[in-house]
Amino acid sequence: MGEKGCLGVIIGNRDFFPDRLVAEARVEIIELFKRLNIRAIMLDTNDTKLGGVESFQDAQKCAALFRQHRDEILGVLVVLPNFGDERGIAETLKLAELNVPVLVQGYPDDLDKLDVARRRDSWCGKISACNNLYQFGIKYSLTSKHVVHPTDPVFINDLLNFVGVCRVTRGLRKVRIGAIGARPGGFNTVRYSEKILQRNGISVVTVDLSEILGNANKLTKYDISVQQRIQKIKDYAPVGRTPDESLIQMAKLDVALTDFVQLHALDATAIQCWTSVQQNYGCNVCTSMSIMSENMLPSGCEVDVTGTLSMYALQLASGSPSALVDWNNNYANDDNKCVLFHCGNWAKSFLPDIEISTAPILGTSVGEENTFGALSGRTPASPLTFGRISTDDPKGIMKAYIGEGRLTDDTLKTFGNRAVAEIPNLQGLMQYICRNGFEHHVVMNASKTAGILKEAFENYMGWEVQYFKDPAEQPLRNESANTKNELAAQY
């Protein structure tokens, strides 16, 4: 298992509380991080008393250490084995100028150890530490329990989710999205504001579709890059009845897209997937988009830039691919189920029965022979996190909705990429989407990470967020990690 991330660690101390508590906490945190594959940047016991932060001088040393590792540190964990020095903690973060998420943890007291020699008072100290962070204007996250031991499965889950929050926050603040081609004329729904995105650290790199198609047309089936890409496509999915001529066109287009992504160091792409590419080039770009999304370079339809941004955010939260889908159909008379659909570019992870095919609906207007490259496949039952980020231009803000449900194995006889979703209070969700001007596209991810996204979007990005929480579920649960029982068994 690879490293999950790197966190700075501040262990608070206060002079009239037992110092041994700091030494014990340091050992426990180091051991926990080792078990969870999280790398710690923290003061050595030779740098300050027991490696804790208590004075302004300690804060200066810890801040200097954090600045040395600025590019590595995703977030900061504040550990309070006793009351702690709230000013030292806040000053460390102020001097370090990391601008990363902060999680505040306090140790619980034992009822039989409340004498002067053994009491912690972290319950009270955590309130003081948070008060100072609030005064300093430093954003921070809280554990599910006010005080909790690091070996408690609840804290372990909180910590893993916090690392997810850190990944989402860092990723969104520096993401680069390619907008390839013009928005299809009939899709006002995917309009967005580049300026609002840029204010939030999100860069959009635009290119005319003719430039990509022109570069693709300069290639021939004899080019090594094209031959390699044809084989890559065949290895990725069964080609079905796709003719060789269409495979060559798909491969040439994929080479041109890959070159553009690499040239501009893009993290994701939103592509003018119809109808120009079919009419002027003769194939669908869906297979290339699916391959990119499967390889964690999400690619969205219809130049839906904020939809693609949503794909990237859900990917960061879960560590698995996302798919941009249509809220497409009711499912019979079940008010909490609906059909999710797209003509065929979902990542392979969603399509165990994947096959390269055509786009029948689009084919009625451009000729089905020009739509080879669309994928066919049904998504099976799995956990579901859904979400959507948008720019609200009249308000000048970023906004989002997120929630959880599940994908089901209910019968569904249709074509393209398809799934059935069951979502609590689906009718209320649809009312919210329609009343607040959200797009018909949403993103799905096979995880339970809505709590991570809410914390990142709302607390650290400062966006307006509506969280559609399943009343039967607990917040901030990450099912892509080990279960709480499995984690507890490690101790």
Automatic annotation (TrEMBL):
Keywords: Carbohydrate metabolism, Isomerase. Residues 340-468 form the L-fucose isomerase C-terminal domain. GO terms for biological process: fucose metabolic process. One of its GO terms (cellular component) is cytoplasm. InterPro entries: Fuc_isomerase_C, Fucose_isomerase_N/cen_sf. Pfam families: Fucose_iso_C. GO terms for molecular function: L-fucose isomerase activity. Transmembrane segments: none annotated. Coiled coil: none annotated. This is L-fucose isomerase.
